[in-house]
Write a structure and sequence with these properties.
The complex is a heterotrimer of chains A (about 425), B (about 300) and C (about 270). Chain A has about 425 residues and is of the alpha/beta class. Chain A folds into 2 domains: about 35-145 and about 300-365, 3-Layer(aba) Sandwich (D-Maltodextrin-Binding Protein, domain 2); about 155-300 and about 370-410, Periplasmic binding protein-like II (D-Maltodextrin-Binding Protein, domain 2, 3-Layer(aba) Sandwich), CATH 3.40.190.10. Chain A has helices at about 1-25, 50-65, 75-90, 105-110, 135-140, 170-180, 200-205, 225-240, 250-255, 270-275, 310-320, 325-335, 350, 355-360, 375-395, 395-410; strands at about 35-45, 65-75, 95, 140, 145, 150, 155, 155-160, 190, 260-265, 280-285, 295-300, 300-305, 365. In chain A, helix 2 (about 50-65) links the parallel strand 1 and strand 2. Chain B has helices at about 1-10, 20-45, 60-70, 70-100, 105-115, 125-135, 140-150, 165-190, 190-200, 205-215, 220-235, 235-240, 255-265, 270-290. Classes of the chains: A alpha/beta (about 425), B mainly alpha (about 300), C mainly alpha (about 270).
């Protein structure tokens, strides 16, 4: 009998749960009329740069009493899982950074999930496209329409652990030499992540005259120049063990922040976490390559608006604020990111900031990874990552490159 | 509830549709949220379906023919079968060993059994994370102990040769306790007289195991192997957390593959084709098991 | 003697393998990064820190997540036990046309991987208007083929004479189910409830997909935030794992006695 009562209790708990849920779900305050308009934003900015973005949001809210923006941070993986179907069905946030990979925006354009940004021009309440780096605007423009603004713009620099490195390398030859020498006593000379990471390997290839695709989107990973640019690094990883193989970005970062890695090529977001971890680190420009010039990776995350948002006007206003001079100046100062806007390039306070200036000085040398290459995300995961992972394990760069080249041309639709 | 308990019987009291009424909630839910969607996914697989695209062009069997030319798919299929066969075989042997060793009802056996059973309730994500770190040559205990012994630590999950066996090992680690508990229960259900008869006949330990224990355990064995195979064929979280299918697809399974196609590359139709292949594999393997164990539904 | 000591060597190795990873995880939640990297061969912390737990507490709306998890796993489990046992009662103890077909349909659903149906189910919930609602979160998961199977096996082991006696007393099917069969099925209830509660509690993808609204997130979803792309703070990750494991561990130790009994009387006939 006791059993019966327990079950009855269970069942009534269940029913109450359902009833409660039926009416407990009216928290969607984005309705009409009174009160401020609510905008939700999803981003994957969970790194050390997170407070910088929070600041933009809270400043915007303070300046716009009629709009209330709430930003939710989750892993990029999670956004990738939820956002496509959420946006298609008109659920989900008004605004989102769909991925840390700028090329991901193409998919959302294809499914008509993102709103064209029309609120462009001059003045504080418009997105000043003329003041944004042209490469970034181009990256987010499809068929002549702008679908996203850059949420940030980063270049990569060389982080080095001051306890292990006395003078940072200035040339590729020195970088290779130091990476090998510093690999000792359980430490790694230069940690190189190859998957789920900001791209490190392409920089090494660019520095020595290699590349991945040419301007007509055809693979060049198999050219003698590209193979020659990769071979020494593959040998260093395979034979000298300057880095563990198969590292993800997070694993490489953890090794550096634990003081187990002498050097790492990384973006400004890492600085805050390394500081918290208590590593005594220095920052230097990426060393110069064979031709005496330096190259680094430029990286940006897109910020886009749902095609089905109820508040397109306010959402665009928010993007305008995000990319505005005031917001970006403050953001650069607090996070060390180079300024997004060309009219901040010569700002004296930013030039005086040692962290910002390191990253900002490399903007002229920065290249985007596979910009507007068809199926860029798959070119990375299905061709480039396997190329590095195969070569660093078996040492056969030419063989791995031949396979990758075939795959890349398949994906980009190159018909040599 | 009591008033309900009084009214409902009137409706359910008669002969007629009582059976279907009792099954209605479950069948409605399973029908709406499992059976209909699996049919839906068959429909997707016959299209170049992309979530949200304006048009979903008909593709016929293209997705399926494409699968069989896809090296990643072949690898995923092979890995899935290897994981399933190896995990099931090892689990049955290890689990049976533990069950035989711990079948008696004393405090020690009971406590030890709880310890072995505990991993069953830990989430696969947590299990995957802990083992991933545990096996990491730079922070893990395994690497640390290897180094303390004066050897070079092994990068288990980044080695193309070792990653798959390691995943199988962790899968076994997670499920061994479940198999053991079920088999202990099965052992207890064997009437004592059977053993007495055998010992009167002078049968040895192994002989008793072969002629009495194993035959009597057959239905239990069917049950555990069925559960373990179905679970292994659908392995996802563990692999996703430990290796994401790497290195170089060496631990890619059918579900990580369909996840990658469906949720990373947004090729819903193609992912649906993979899922139908997986579904058919699961049904075939289950049917095969029912045959092997000569399952009799009539009892 | 030899077999006996061999037996304990075997069990001993198993015990070490089973326990050490768990101890290492719990200890890891109290370790600093430097300690973790510096003393890899050590099972226990050299210096203790609460940094991991503080991190979890500061960065998550912890109580809200806990509430959502308890509600989702608790209510769904209660419904599952009710629906599964009803369905199993019909399958095990009633005679009607189509019973075998129904049983096989149930078994087939056991073979469908969750990821396969994720997108179609999402679209259904969208058409029902159930996204971001508790009913959307709960109802699709409120029955389990495994539970039905287990209850069915259990119910089949109960002597038919019991029903007959009740029927002579004038009881209908529902009364027999509710008053006669269910009270006997305590161990099976415990088994199904424990397994379902565990699965639901640990489920990461389902709540993530159904609720785009982060006030409806569950604990595992919240904790997944810490496995981000940047520097991994291992102590926080371990602390998160320990926290989400604790409620399950408590349920496990309370219910495992029934659970074993449930397993041993079902699934084996």
């Amino acid at each position: 009998m006791r059993n019966k009562r327990a079950l009855a209790a269970l069942a009534s708990v269940a029913l109450t749960g359902l009833l409660v849920s039926g009416c407990g779900n009216s928290d969607d305050s984005s309705g009409s009329g009174s009160g401020p308009v609510s905008l939700t934003v999803w981003t994957g900015f969970t790194g050390g740069d997170a407070p910088g973005y929070d600041q933009i949001v809270s400043d915007f809210n303070a300046a716009h009493p009629d709009i209330k923006v709430t930003m939710t941070k989750m892993s990029w993986d999670t956004i990738g899982q939820k956002l496509p179907s959420a946006w298609v069905t008109g659920q989900g946030p008004d605004i989102a950074a769909p991925s840390s990979d700028p090329n991901a925006i193409a998919q959302y354009v294809k499914t008509n999930s993102v709103l064209e940004i029309t609120n462009t021009g001059t003045g504080d309440d418009k997105v000043n496209t003329d003041q944004l780096a042209p490469a970034l605007v181009k990256e987010f423009t499809y068929n002549g329409k702008l679908y996203a603004v850059p949420a940030n713009y980063a270049t990569l620099s060389l982080y080095y652990n001051k306890k292990l490195v006395s003078t940072p390398p200035t040339t590729v030859a020195e970088l290779q030499d130091q990476a090998a020498k510093l690999t000792t006593g359980g430490n790694y000379g230069l940690v190189l992540a190859d998957n789920n990471t900001i791209q490190m390997w392409p920089i090494l290839q660019w520095l020595s005259g290699g590349d991945i695709v040419d301007t007509s989107n055809c693979s060049v990973v198999g050219t003698p120049a590209s193979i020659a640019s990769l071979q020494p690094w593959v040998d260093l990883v395979k034979n000298k063990k300057i880095s563990p193989v198969g590292l993800s970005g997070a694993e490489a970062d953890s090794l550096f922040s634990a003081g187990k890695a002498a050097m790492e090529i990384n973006g400004p977001w890492a600085a805050a976490s390394y500081k918290t971890a208590g590593v005594d680190f220095g920052l230097a420009a990426v060393p110069t390559g064979a031709d005496g010039k330096s190259v680094t990776l430029g990286s940006t995350a897109p910020l886009a608006i749902s095609a089905k948002t109820k508040h397109p006007q306010q959402a665009q206003e928010f993007l305008a604020y995000w990319t505005s001079k005031t917001a970006q100046l403050k953001f650069s100062k607090s996070t060390g990111f180079p300024p997004l806007r060309t009219d901040l390039a010569d700002d004296a306070t930013l030039k005086a900031d040692p962290t910002v200036s390191i990253f900002a000085n490399q903007v002229p040398n920065a290249k985007l990874y596979l910009p507007q290459v068809p199926n860029a995300t798959k070119v990375d995961t299905d061709a480039y990552v396997p190329l590095i992972q195969t070569a660093t394990r078996n040492g056969d760069v030419a063989g791995a490159a031949a396979t990758a080249a075939k795959k890349i041309n398949e994906l980009t639709g190159c018909t040599q | 509830m009591t008033s309900l308990a009084r009214k409902v019987p009137a409706a359910l009291g008669g002969r007629g549709p009582a059976g279907w009424l009792f099954m209605a909630p479950s069948l409605l839910i399973l029908g709406t949220f499992v059976l209909f969607p699996i049919g839906r996914s068959l429909w997707y697989s016959l299209h170049n379906w992309t979530v949200g695209a304006a048009e979903q062009p008909w593709a016929g069997l293209d997705n399926y023919t494409r699968l069989f030319g896809d090296a990643q798919f072949q690898r995923a299929l092979a890995n899935t079968l290897i994981i399933t066969v190896a995990s099931t075989a090892v689990l049955v042997v290890v689990g049976l060993g533990l069950a035989l060793a711990l079948q008696s009802e004393n405090v020690v056996s009971r406590v030890v059994r709880s310890v072995f059973f505990f991993p069953t309730v830990i989430s696969l994500t947590t299990v995957g994370m802990v083992w991933r770190f545990l096996l990491d040559p730079d922070i893990g205990l395994v690497g640390g102990v290897t180094r303390a012994l004066g050897l070079d630590p092994v990068n288990w999950l980044q080695s193309t040769a070792l990653a798959l066996p390691t995943v199988i090992f962790v899968n076994v680690w997670k499920n061994a306790g479940f198999v053991m508990i079920v088999l202990v229960a099965g052992l207890k259900a064997i009437p004592g007289e059977h053993y007495e008869a055998a010992s009167l006949d002078g049968a040895g330990r192994l002989q008793t195991l072969r002629s009495i224990t194993l035959p009597a355990l057959r239905p239990t064995m069917l049950f555990v192997t069925f559960m373990v195979t179905v679970q292994s064929l659908q392995l996802f979280d563990l692999v996703y957390v430990m290796t994401s299918g790497g290195p170089l697809d060496h631990t890619e399974t059918l579900v990580t593959k369909l996840y990658r196609d469906g949720f990373v590359n947004y090729e819903t139709g193609y992912a649906a084709a993979t899922s139908w292949v997986l579904f058919i594999v699961v049904v075939l393997v289950s049917a095969l098991q029912l045959r092997i164990f000569r399952y009799n539904d009539a009892d | 003697m030899l077999t006996k000591s061999l037996k304990w060597v075997y069990v001993g190795i198993g015990l070490v393998l089973a326990i050490v990873p768990l101890i290492w995880m719990v200890a890891g939640s109290f370790r600093t990064e430097a300690d973790l990297y510096g003393h890899t061969a050590s099972l226990f912390p050299h210096e203790w820190t609460l940094h991991g737990y503080k991190g979890v507490w500061q960065q998550l709306p912890f109580l809200r997540l806990l509430f959502n998890s308890v509600l989702f796993a608790g209510v769904t489990t209660a419904l599952t036990v009710l629906f599964d046992s009803m369905c199993a009662y019909a399958l095990a103890r009633l005679e009607f046309r189509g019973r075998t077909v129904a049983f096989w349909l149930v078994l087939v659903t056991l073979m469908v991987p969750f990821q396969v149906t994720l997108i179609p189910v999402f679209m259904e919930l969208f058409h029902f208007g159930w996204l971001n609602t508790y009913q959307g979160l709960i109802i699709p998961r409120a029955t389990s083929a495994f539970g039905i199977f287990l209850f069915r096996q259990f119910f089949m082991s109960i002597p038919k004479e019991l029903d007959e006696a009740a029927r002579i007393d004038g009881a209908g099917h529902f009364r027999i189910y509710w008053r006669v069969i269910l009270p006997l099925a305590k161990p099976a209830i415990a088994t199904v409830a424990l397994l379902n509660f565990t699965n639901l509690w640990n489920d990461l993808i389902w709540p993530l997909v159904v609720s785009t609204d982060n006030t409806m997130q569950t604990l595992p979803a919240g904790l997944a935030l810490f496995a981000g792309q940047h520097v991994t703070d291992h102590a926080v990750l371990f602390a998160g794992a320990v926290i989400s494991l604790l409620p399950i561990a408590v349920v496990f130790f309370l219910a495992q006695r029934y659970f074993v009994a449930g397993i041993s009387t079902s699934g084996l006939k």
